[in-house]
Specification:
By secondary structure, this protein is an alpha/beta fold. The chain is built from ten helices and 13 strands. Bound molecules: uridine-diphosphate-N-acetylglucosamine (UD1).
């Protein structure tokens, strides 16, 4: 198996991918992470040919040095969050746009064969038709969405101009173990799960009928592994990385209350700026070209994730 490099490999999704690569017998996995939103603890307990480099993707020279010898790069490093990109647009742009540009420059400079990129479903914005298909026009509503879409365009140009094989995977609200619930910018399910375990009421922004295609992290890992192994004919494209379903925030909170056997009516607050109303992926293109279909239902992923948070919560109690 190849030598892989994962940017953002100490983050929630990146570290799950590192686990997947090691369990598939990768000959070497280099992790590049500045530990800004990632954590070294996410890689604890892993054994095998793992090489951690505390490098910021904004540092081109250090990034190119870390990338030497890698054949396939998974570019997961980013400053996520729609509201964060509105409150702190400069670092968000620097990492998400300039950092991605550096990853592509470095990849061609050191002879990487393929780059697989964590794009975002936010690129679609509010479209009148669901589910969202890759052929639809994009309509980014936030700096984050525009930055992630810019990355897709750069990958496509890099394949055309420099012969780098590229694949963009538009992630749809990924959740699962190790998603950090520690900030107001954290993914909503991580906030809901820690709230229910602590018997706190969450705040739902809007009327709670906002819907998302919540996608379990192991399905995103599976799709990335398929993208790495896919034939060249599958490259130069953008694929949805979603579950194909659609759950409202009210439904998600109701399911958690039912599982825990408690009644905790949520608080409702104003809709967040840049928020998309409804999101649901069409998964057909990924099935056709990457041969991946989602393996986990929302409830399976949710229950597994809740148990993980429960274990962490009990450890800290
Ligand atoms: C968006 C992208 C997602 C991307 C993520 C990165 C879309 C449809 N999705 O996620 O693909 O991975 O950015 O950050 O654009 N909310 C609450 N209460 C809270 C926190 C959030 O009600 O305490 C609401 C938000 O207002 C939003 C929904 O929950 O309506 C989901 O929010 P969040 O988990 O932050 O993700 P998105 O912004 O949807």
């Amino acid at each position: 198996m190849s030598h892989f490099l994962v940017t953002g490999g100490a983050g929630f999704i990146g570290s799950a991918l590192v686990r997947g690569l090691l369990s598939q017998g990768a000959s070497r996995v280099t992790v590049v992470d500045n530990l800004l939103t990632g954590h070294a603890r996410n890689l604890e307990g892993l054994s095998g040919p793992l090489d951690f480099r505390q490098v910021d993707i904004r540092d081109y020279a250090a990034l190119a040095a870390a990338m030497q010898g890698a054949e396939i790069v998974f570019h997961e490093a980013a400053i996520p969050s729609v509201p964060r990109s509105i409150h702190e647009p400069i670092p968000s742009h620097d990492v998400n746009v300039n950092g991605t540009f550096n990853v592509l420059r470095a990849a061609t400079a050191v002879g990487v064969r393929r780059v697989i990129y964590a794009a975002s479903s936010s690129a679609y914005g509010d479209t009148p038709v669901l589910p969202k298909v890759e052929s639809m026009p994009t309509n980014p509503k936030s700096p984050y969405a525009a930055q992630k879409l810019m990355g897709e365009y750069y990958l496509s140009c890099w394949q055309g101009c420099f012969g780098l094989e590229t694949i963009s995977l538009r992630y749809f609200n990924v959740f699962g173990p190790r998603q950090d619930p520690g900030s107001a910018y954290s993914g909503v399910l991580s906030l809901f799960m820690t709230a229910i375990l602590e018997r706190r009421t969450p705040t739902i922004f809007g009327d709670g009928e906002t819907s998302r295609d919540f996608t379990y992290v192991e399905d995103v890992v599976g799709l990335n592994l398929k993208a790495a192994a896919a034939p060249v004919s599958a490259c130069g494209r953008v694929y949805n990385a979603g579950n194909g379903g659609r759950i409202t925030l009210n439904e998600a909170w109701a399911m958690l209350q039912k599982i825990e056997g408690v009644s905790l009516p949520p608080n409702y607050g104003p809709v967040r700026a840049g928020d998309v109303r409804d999101s649901q992926s069409d998964t057909a293109l990924a099935v056709e070209y990457l041969k991946h279909s989602p393996q986990y239902t929302f409830e399976q992923g949710m229950r597994a994730t809740l148990e993980w948070y429960r274990g962490e919560w009990q450890k800290s109690a």
